Amino acid sequence: MAAEKEFVDHVQTTSSQAATDTCSDTANHHGVVITVDAKAEARLRRKIDWSIVPTVSLIYLFCFIDRANIGNARLAGLEKDLKMTGYDYNKLLSVFYISYIVFEIPSNLACKWIGPGWFLPTLTLAFGICSVSTAFVHSFSSACGVRFLLGIFEAGMLPGIAYYLSRWYRRVELALRLALYLVMAPLAGAFGGLLASAILRLDSFGGLKTWRMIFAIEGIITIGLGLLAFATLTDRPETARWLTQEEKRLAISRVRSEYEYAGARAVLDKLNMKKITRGIFNPVVQAISWIMLLACVTVQGLAFFAPTIVRTIYPEKSTVEQQLQTVPPYIVGAVSTILIPYLTGRLDRRLILFIITPLLMMTGYIIFLATENANARYGATFLIAFGSFPLGVLTNAHASANVVSDTARASAIGIVVMMGNIGGLIATWSFLPFDGPNYPIGNGLNLATGTTCLLIAMRSMRIALNHFLFKIKAADSDQCYCSEGSQTPRHILMQCPLYADLRRTFLDKISMTDLRNSTNYDAIISHSQATRYVAEFMLQTGLLGQFRHVEIEPEPPQEGDETNKAGAGGEDDGY
Questions:
Q1: Are 402 and 501 in the same domain?
Q2: Cα torsion for 551, 553, 556, 560, to the nearest 10°?
Q3: What is the pairing mode between strands 25-29 and 8-13?
């Protein structure tokens, strides 16, 4: 059957125009285009989606529930039963983040070393046991001990899943798949509130009452999911029991083509300290890490304090009704967590959405600070949820797309998530008892974090455009694949006959700057105002991809190492 033929059809040299017209998906590097059967790849992608995404989504759902259900337990009498006073609740939240932050990067490197197929289910089993154990604590100190252990075991989950998915999907596919599991964070808030409300309607569960039932029942469900994950998750395409040999070859080749396109020689590489540090200190990753930190002040603060905030808005409602009022904002957050990454995949843009989403967060907190009207403040929670929750997906996808090697990717995702959890630690102290009931200090802090996110994103967009132009300069020996043969970026931008109409529009825009009617290539690509127009031109010609992954500082491979090119090139500017 045609569908069962060799999946990687051929390797050919072609023009970018022909590559645009073909019905097959391609990956090209310096003129070499690897073409695969698009229909076969679509079938494979659906099979991967149904085989691994539901499992990782469910385990992350209960990972977040087991972390955030302490907010629901607080409403159900946790503080009273454990004799907690003053800032004890904030301290209890902070203990979790101390271990969470410390073990973030080591956990993700352990995930690479052990293999995600074993590591992620083991973590799920462990934090499920911690959740059940919380149901049996009888003092503040014992609760802190269990929360510390919970932080250790949950530390590797978010970056581990992101790293795991990067083994299976192309870069352009990754953001949506990250969204499909990270959407579980807002859904955990919604579902957790519903589940807590349902559990609290029970008289008892195994002799446990009130808030203890929440931890016990949700922990048991988590343990069951951990056991299921052992059966469903597999490390990588080569070891997948549910793929045929032909599908394995396609799964490997389609991911490998992007690694080779970026200058790497193998999909999986050996742990190497140089590559680890490259992933951590990549300038793009550093900027994204700070956005993640600031966003998580809001996201985690909403997770831990949404029930408390709702109680201050609707103090006359019962505890169960207050729990239910926390659900709708999380549903809106879940919608945005899918919608925004979907748009990034369709538009192949991320940084512009890094600018739009903080504006919504800022608007929500301005409303909180400006009015005491209950309906307006409740409406503001929807804006905050819509703007803040997608940032977790965008930051992880952008970090993953801006490093090359497997090791660098593991460390890059690890540092992004670690910084996010430093934001979570800050969030535990953002809403303090003396600041109630309207919490102007907490809301002001979150307004400041949203504003700073916006400023970093705007600066990052400018850096990305400049970096793109630097790589065009570095690619001066590349081809444009027009009928005249091998040509340079100078030719593409200023002379290539294939793009005469686009060039006229481009030069019209240039003439509106202080360059006037200049056709000097060096002056144009060095001019700050012309930066965006050059990028637009390369996008419209379909040639931008040639210059996204230019290896600027190639290095010889180290002995015994299959790839050494992590982080120096291979960046996906994604503006």
A1: no
A2: -80
A3: unpaired
- At residue 175's C-alpha, the angle toward residues 284 and 404, to 5°, is 45
pLDDT tens for each residue of 175-232: 788 788 777 877 777 777 788 888 888 888 877 888 899 899 999 999 999 999 998 8
In contact, 138 and 82? CB cutoff 8 Å:
yes
Q: Is residue 325 in some structural domain?
A: yes
The answer to whether residues 437 and 525 belong to one domain is: no
Whether the Cβ atoms of residue 422 and residue 96 lie closer than 8 Å to each other:
no
Which letter, b or e, does each residue of 10-21 get, where b requires 16 or more Cβ atoms within 10 Å of its Cβ? eeeebbbeebee
In a domain, 551, yes or no: no
- Give the span between the Cα atoms of 121 and 100, in whole angstroms: 18
Q: Whole-model pTM? A: 0.62
**8 A C-beta contact, residue 394 and residue 266:** no
Indicate if 202 and 133 belong to the same structural domain: yes
Domain identity same for 203 and 234 = yes
Segment 488-536, tens digit of pLDDT = 667 777 777 777 888 888 888 888 887 877 777 777 776 767 767 777 7
Task: Give the total number of structural domains in the chain.
Answer: 2
398 and 533 within one domain: no
Q: Is residue 552 part of a domain?
A: no
Cβ-contact 25, 35 below 8 angstroms:
yes
SS3 of residue 27 by DSSP? strand
**Cβ burial 88-124 (10 Å sphere, 16+ → b, else e):** ebbbbbbbbbebbbebbbebbbbbbeebbbebbbebb
Is 30 a member of any domain?
no
368: CB partners within 8 A, 6+ apart:
377, 380, 438, 439, 443
- As a whole number of angstroms, the distance between CA 156 and CA 300 comes to 17
Place of tokens 């974090």: 449
Cα–Cα distance for residue pair 31/478, rounded to 1 Å? 9
Residue 516: which domain range? 481-542
